[in-house]
Structures are given as C-alpha cells and as structure tokens.
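Q: I have two molecules that I believe assemble together. Could you output structure tokens for the complex as a whole instead of separate predictions?
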Amino acid sequence: MTDTLFDEKKKIYTVTELTRDIKSVFESAFPAVWLEGEVSNLHLQHSSGHQYFSLKDENSIIKCVFFRNSNAKVKFQLEDGMHILCFGRISVYEKQGQYQLYVETAEVQGKGALQVAFEQLKLKLYKEGLFDERHKRPIPLLPVRIGVVTSPTGAAVRDIIKVACKRFSNVEITICPVKVQGPGAKEDIAMAILALNEYNEYLEENGSLEHKIDVMIVGRGGGSVEDLWAFNEEVVARAIFDSTIPVISAVGHEIDFTISDFVADVRAATPSAAAELVIPEKEVLLDRIDVSRERLNVALRTMLENLKEKVESLADSYVLREPINVITQFSQEIDDLEKRLNVFAGHSLDMAGSRFMRSAEKLEMLNPLAVLRRGYSITFKDGCPVRDTGMLRVGDSILTRFGGGEAESRIEKISATGTDKKE
Amino acid sequence: MKDMDFEKALEKLEKTVEELESGEVSLDMSLKKYEEGIKLVRLCQKKLNEAKQRVELLMKDEKGRFSKMDFEDEEK
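A: Yes, here they are, computed for all two components at once.
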C-alpha cells in the first residue's frame, strides 16, 4: 500500500497548491451567488471596518466576510439573529483553508411580514391624513372622568390607577375591559373605543347628571412585537380616529411605536406616563389658583394705593385749605375700603364698590384743576404757593396759575389787612 | 358661570388677572373685574374638589345596553 501511495507517477500536491486548486474550483463554480440566512457570530473589526460573520440555517453554516468598501454602502447595521440576503462570491481563505462568502451587498430579508405590514398601513393611513395635526383633539386640563380601554388584569390598568391615587384623588376611572392580544383583540379594542363614545351619547340623550368621559387612554403594558400587534391594526386605528373623545395611546414601553400612537391625539410612552399626562397634580392646580388670587389682590391694592396718594397730594395742596377735613376723611374711607377688600366677603364688595365710586367722584370735584376752572387761581413765589402777604416784598416776581394758563407779575404794593394785591 | 369647566374658568381667571394688572381698566371696571376674579377662584377650587374618586368597569351587552360595576383591583 505504502509503495503505491508514494509512486513517483502520482501527482503530489503541496498544501498550498491544493488549496489554490480548490480555491479556483470554488471561484469558477460560484462566482456570483445569492445566499440567504441568519446572521450569527457577528464580529466587527473596528480598525479595518471589515465585518466577519456566519450565515446559518437549521442545518448548516457558511462563513462570510464583508469588507469595508462593500459594507459601507449598506444602510442598515448587521445584527446577530438578523435574517439577511447576501450577494457575493465563494472563495477560500488560504491561511485557514476556509471557504467563505465574500459579500458584496446585503439586504434585510423577509424583514418580518409584520414589519412590512406595519409600514404599509402606516403609509396608507398617513396618505389618508389620519395622522394630521389638524385632527388632533386637545386633552382637557382637568378631566373628571377618564375612560380606559385595556385588559382588566394587565399591568397597565394597575399603573393607571396607581398614578391616579397618587396625583389626584378626585378622578373617576371607567374601564372598558378588552383582550389586548391574541385573536379577537383588535375587534375588542375597536368596539370598546366606540362603546365609550356611545356611552357619552347615551348619557347625553338620557339627560344623565353623571359626568361624561372627558378623555380615554387606550393601551397595554410591554410585550413582544406580536403581543402589541393589535395596536397596529387598521380597525383599531380607525376607531381611534373616529372617536369624539380625545384618545391617548399608551402601548408598551418608550421604544415601542404603534400605528395607534400615530393616530391618537397624544402618544404616551407607557400607561403610567399616559395617566401622568392626563391627571394633573392637584397641588400644582391649587397653586396656580392661589397665585391668581394673590395677583388680583395686589392689583387692586395697587390701585387703592394710587388713589390714596392722589388724595394725600390733594390734602397737601394749599388751595384747598377749606375742604381739607373732607379730604382726610376720604383718605380714611379709602383705608377702610382697603381693609374691607382685604377681608373681602362676597356681598360686601358691591357696597364697598359703590362707596368707592362715590369717593372717586368727590375726589374729582376736589381736584385742584377743577377748582381753578371755577375761577380760582394759585400764586407761587419761587415755586412755593403764596399763603400770606407776609411772604411777599415789593418788587418780588410772582407766578399766578389759572384754570387755563399762567401769568407772571411784579408786586407794587402790599396791604397787611389780608387782601393780597397783585398786578 | 357655574357651567363653565375648570379649564375655561382657570383661563378666564388668568385673563382677568392680567386685565386688572394692566391698569388700563377704569375704577368701577376694576372692581367688577376683581369681583369676577374672586368668583372664578372659588369656582376653580370647587371644581377641583367636586369629583369623586371611583374606578368602575363599563360593559355593553349584545343588545347595546350598558352596565357598570365597581372595579376590584386585587393589588389595591
């Protein structure tokens, strides 16, 4: 046996020679192949930018290499588990005697029928205008009653109730129980959205005193894409769109986007977030009311202060010696009003208000300008009002102000009898 | 004014405050605005406190009739 094995006539390869021959056989047999499979053992060589991975199916595995100049043209990032379709050639990596696919291009294969369906429906509804901003209904600031379309046994309903209890005790929650996954879920959800709308109509028609539903949360807790699928169904999307009650969509976690999210008036990242969005914090609202009340008081007080100042400056006016008592009286009256307004209690305001008005009218009558208009005048010397001839000397220059305009004159004669003489 | 919902009342209150603060309204108007403002404050407070807390299930049968029952949350 050994003799024949090493017979001189036999062609004996070196490892390199055989490898090269095998390589050329592979290369001529598979110069251009499409290969479909699941990515595994993905290894990204950061320094070179080359990607090494395997494509596998149930029984077999083939090594692949995706060089940088080729993989740079592909928009998506390869991931383990991804189902892809590759185009390339088969060759052999001589150093390891390893045949492999030299990938030239790749695309995501059979991107999940679900994903395709999602994108198709999204595009269809988008084109129909179901996602338009102009269709978005505003969410009420303080809903009295919130409808919830979800599973009565799921995490979502508990989360919503928890938030409601924490934030604002005075809210009614009406749950419309539905299946959120599996066969029949989409019909259930769509019917429930409709039922809440019908319930509002029913309350209205029957003149019920019961509060209607102001807003609804439609959603469920986290799950797989398949679990959340009902919220990607057209029948659910249309029910949300047709709802006259504003709808907040709350499906899964932050990263889960569904068709419902796009159609809903508001998308909340999670059911808890939906509850937080729709149920205000009572304290915040109370603060807002308190701030307004304080501002009302300050504004009115400022107005009263201004009026008081006006009265006081009138009291200081030298023209008005006579009615000075009247003015100080008004001043007191305004103080009084201010106190009463500060301790304001309903009915007293009307009375306080009309007294205030009377005071203001009287003030207007006592306005120095009004007095001047009646024919009086004020005389000033060096800017000070002249109250007594004692302030004057012959030759002094004085200024007299009338109802309309003023005149400058010089003193020629002074009588001490109390009669001022002016020229 | 009683029928006004909370949101509208709060909106109106804040508008009233701004008008009063602007100082552009006459004296008697100011008093009216003040009074209106205080009434709105009370309405808002009342609205905040008036709803009851309740969690219930709403069901609709084949004949389209609604029925309600209290929701029992096992974790509550």
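A: One point stands out. Residues 418-423 of chain A have pLDDT under 50 and may be disordered.
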